[in-house]
Amino acid sequence: MITRLAQLIDTVPTHLRLNRVARGEASATRSDIGFVDVGDAIVRFRRAGSNGPSLVLATDPPVPLELYDQLIALLASDFRVTVFEIPGFGCSLPRVGFRFSLPRAAASVTRFLEQLPAAPHVLAMPCVSGYVAVAIANARPELVSRLILAQTPSWADGQSWLRGRDRHGLLRRPVIGQLALAALRRKRARAWYQAALGTPSLLDAFTAATLHNFDQGGCFCLASGFQDFLRDHHDLLKPVGQQALILWGHADASHRHSEPKGAASFAPNAQLACLDGVGHFPELEAPAAVLTQIRSFVDKGTAR
């Protein structure tokens, strides 16, 4: 009960500014931006390309859509590409009472996928949001043809990652965590990029884009996620039948204790592609190399 009450600290403000954000600057920073209403949240997305399989990628919070220009341009010649911000992050704003549990996150993303054309989709979700992709692939296999998981740890390694990101347990304390992050999120965003990027030259650009996203009304409900999403996987992470590609950047200091192929515990048909000199954001730090990996992965699946 206290967790749900604490989440109101995040969702009441996002609910109140939802319509303003959907009609404001966040809707027009790029010509390909759109919003989809999934009931308990709105989802901000970008879409490009008109040929090939549907490739749907989630951003890696707090990275906003605006930092995906180069990746989208590269992918659009081979795929019908959609990039979206996960509800509770960026300008995908939850309505009041939104729950940040894994089942609710999976349900919201499922409703988003149902509204996209050209299913089934190659679904790419990074880090612990990869758990959402696994849950959807199990529950709705007709929506997901293949999985791409970047920096997604095993569940056990995900718990260790959580403790490393919140060493003093501040963000995991209901109410206190939400209030603390509301006060510190601008500072914490830069600190996170400093810890996670394997490409230091990107630090200023990532930080500036994220802070601008906050200024546009974007949210960063990390405390609610830590308190709910990573508390229990609700038996949703059963092994999937789809082929999977695990992308792993070796220069990610935040995951230095994680096993690169940890996601194979729930994606047994996974192949692993490790990238040296790349940190927590392989698709943004090395987009050309990631495109090569995705092309090869999807082409092999098509051939089969």
Tell me how many strands there are. Answer: 10
Per DSSP, the total helix count is 10
Percentage of residues in DSSP E strands: 15-25%
CATH class: Alpha Beta
Quaternary status: single chain
| Number of domains as seen in the coordinates | 1
List keywords for this structure.
304 residues; alpha/beta; Rossmann fold; 8-stranded mixed sheet; two-stranded antiparallel sheet; 10 helices; 10 strands; globular
How would you summarize what this structure contains?
The protein is an alpha/beta fold and 304 residues long. It has helices at 2-23, 69-75, 102-114, 130-139, 155-165, 176-196, 203-215, 222-229, 282-285, 287-303, and strands spanning 33-37, 42-48, 54-58, 80-84, 89-90, 121-126, 144-150, 219-220, 243-249, 270-275.
What's the helix and strand layout?
Blueprint: H1 2-23, E1 33-37, E2 42-48, E3 54-58, H2 69-75, E4 80-84, E5 89-90, H3 102-114, E6 121-126, H4 130-139, E7 144-150, H5 155-165, H6 176-196, H7 203-215, E8 219-220, H8 222-229, E9 243-249, E10 270-275, H9 282-285, H10 287-303
Parallel strand pairs: 3-4, 3-6, 6-7, 7-9, 9-10
Antiparallel strand pairs: 1-2, 2-4, 5-8
Task: Explain what you see.
With about 300 residues, the chain is α/β, with parallel strands linked by helices. It has one domain (about 1-304): Rossmann fold, CATH 3.40.50. It has helices at about 1-25, 70-75, 100-115, 130-140, 155-165, 175-195, 205-215, 220-230, 280-285, 285-304, and strands at about 35, 40-50, 55-60, 80-85, 90, 120-125, 145-150, 220, 245-250, 270-275. The strands form two sheets. The chain has an eight-stranded mixed sheet, with helices on both faces. Strands 5-8 form a two-stranded antiparallel ribbon. Helix 3 packs across helix 4 (about 130-140) and helix 6 (about 175-195) runs antiparallel to helix 7 (about 205-215). The longest helix has 22 residues, at about 1-25. The chain is globular. The chain starts with a helix and ends with a helix. The model has no long low-confidence stretch (mean pLDDT about 95).
